[in-house]
Amino acid sequence: MHIPTQEHWNETVTRESSRGKLERVKEVKSFMIKNWQDRYSDNIKEFQGYSIGKIFKYLNNPEIISLAGGLPSPEMFQVFEMRLASQKRLEEDIYTIMQYTAVPGEITLIDAILGFLKRDNINIQEENLVVTSSGQHGLDLTGRLFLNPGDIVMLDRPTFAGAIVAFQMQRPKIIGIDLQEDGVDVDSYKIKLEELVKKGQKPKFIYVVPDFQNPSGITTGLEKRKALLELSYKYDIPIVEDSPYRDLRYRGETVPSIFSLDQQNGGSNVIGLYTFSKLFCPGIRVGFNIGPADVINRMTNIKEANILNTPKYNQDMCTEFLTTMGFDKHINKCRKYYREKLDLFLQTMEECFPPEMGVTWTKPEGGLFLWVTVPEHIDTNELFMEAIKYKVAFVPGEVFYGENPSKNHMRINFSFASKEQLTEAVKRLSKCIKAYV
Ligand SMILES: Cc1ncc(COP(=O)(O)O)c(C=O)c1O
Predict the structure, then answer these.
(1) For a substitution probing ligand 1, which of 142, 160, 219, 370 has the most ligand atoms within 8 Å of its CB?
(2) Tens of pLDDT along 253-267?
(3) Which CATH class for the 51-77+328-436 domain?
(4) Best substitution site from 56, 220, 277, 371 to test ligand 1's pocket, by max atoms within 8 Å of Cβ?
């Protein structure tokens, strides 16, 4: 074997010093890799990452009111309770907190979550649950477990951009079905499924966010949930139900989760994805996936390879959140706080967008987002750049489509900005659109 010497590695080059003098220095040259692109895996070569990230570089100016991020309000963080719980856990258990911990999750947290799910008519065992390091990790495990390149995933148009990127890592074919005002368009799913199955192209799974969907805020009603489940049984296709916003309902009746409906039928067709990010805090990066024991076991194997374990401290904070930090009171507080913001936002929209402007928007019953549609000739990517001049920001709708994006929509977050900022943001948006049109 040829072993390079120091002479091969270094080349002497002339360069200008910081004081403006020319100097001779040795630089590592000969064995430098010049082309990294050709070495990346096929899965990653074309992968561009999370496209939402690209707009955030425009938001550095503090005068810009951002309705772009999916951030819960820091006013809803239980800072006092969190400090207390944190101190308690560190005093009681600092040595185990500093250690590696079980891959599937801390048993204390798993027990607390099993109790939490019972409130929602979900009755599962420890073997049906893996703790994840957030909802995004749960999506990543799902994509890795099920998808080979070219496999089909069906989902709504629009849907959560983070799910699209997580699945895209495995290079599937994404088939989208337009979402309706009252949720998942089950009839169109059926037509498409029939067509695909006939061609021998059975999708690997259907991904949905039935409660206060990101980005539209739309909720899918009970009949449609049941009908979607029927499709899953008929065509033998799992449903991945992502539920980060389920407890953030501000009005109307809770609709049973597809997971619980499946359980009532004695089925095992649904995988549920959950996160503590929206209800507790995103900084803690903890969530959980539930489903058939074999699926969860396989997800746990993947987790072992990709992050090993979720930090015990973070899990302990979530256990405290569910058991000692006044959970019910906290949820009620969040619901009241966000309801007020949503109502104010909707009212200001009515005032600032008269019907002749041709702008429409969803009226969510919960969650953190609503979906605004502008006249078809407006491309919201371009409108975004204009809106920045008016010091207001949103997410252009394009990123929420797996393929053939629709360009005249925007996602609006109403949870993070203050009430004053929300009304000002709507006024700025209205002025901007009037001028742009
Ligand atoms: C539908 C949906 N799933 C998953 C996630 C990811 O959540 P997390 O912040 O816990 O990674 C989000 C976050 O916005 C979401 O809206």
Answers:
(1) 160
(2) 999 999 999 999 999
(3) alpha beta
(4) 277
